[in-house]
């Protein structure tokens, strides 16, 4: 049975959106930004970056991660942050601060294939593998149980982790997770890894910015988002650009072919869905025929539908926000998140 909080401060959301729309209409696109190394060398993370060395699939790999202690009185709980496909651990900066200030220890890793972590030439990507990698990191850090907070693709990963290691998950929270529908089953055409690779080689700062403005932020833009555009574009035009593009292609194939949608019903822990209702993200939407494109990526519907599938779910919606409410309106988002974390009992 799910609990739905259908509207979160709608008047404040609307009033906050108006000046942003005006800003978006008058701004000019920035110049192309810097180039970064294949493991994001040259990009500054908000907290000390560490690396976890381990072996996987016969290779020596490393995961970049941040481990942030509670700021002030610790509550003895840990939150593990799982970033999205077009995001990094660094993009959680405001969430890290909010959680740390509230007494949580925060672990924010970059998954293999992303950002500051290894990008192997050959790797069998699966959500099970990424979850296992993360579990190894937490074990090395002495963390036996944690709350998971996954955004976008990180929501799919957090779901898989919670299904693989339910006894190690206190609570599960997901921010606009993708995978709330099975795009392949709904008629989105398959794109091969080679096709994804060719697409990723053509990534530009302008393309990233235009896509994010439309899909992530419902046509609005804030100057602070430019840093994240530079981060992604800098990886894609740096000295490791082919390596970055190839791993990105493999990861897109994983996302498209490994749905978690059919297993939401099996989640056993308290689960929170935090949904920006104006999000329209759907993998492969650009290839879909018009009739398919028209019926996918409707988060104002998907959040409610999936909340009904998850046994112990709570749904909090952010009207008018897009794919990343934690970045678009961090104060409202964290007020909602921390309120739920504080009043929701963890799994014994």
UniProtKB/TrEMBL annotation:
InterPro entries named in the record: AB_hydrolase_1, AB_hydrolase_fold, AB_hydrolase_sf, Epox_hydrolase-like
Highest taxon, organism lineage: Bacteria
Pfam family, one: Abhydrolase_1
Keywords: Hydrolase, Signal
Species: Pseudomonas fluorescens
Record-level Gene Ontology MF annotations: monoacylglycerol lipase activity
Signal peptide: 1-24
Residue ranges of domain AB hydrolase-1 in the record: 78-330
Protein name as annotated: Alpha/beta hydrolase
UniProt KW Hydrolase keyword: yes
Gene3D superfamilies in the cross-refs: alpha/beta hydrolase (3.40.50.1820)
SUPFAM superfamilies in the cross-refs: alpha/beta-Hydrolases (SSF53474)
GO biological process: acylglycerol catabolic process
GO cellular component: membrane
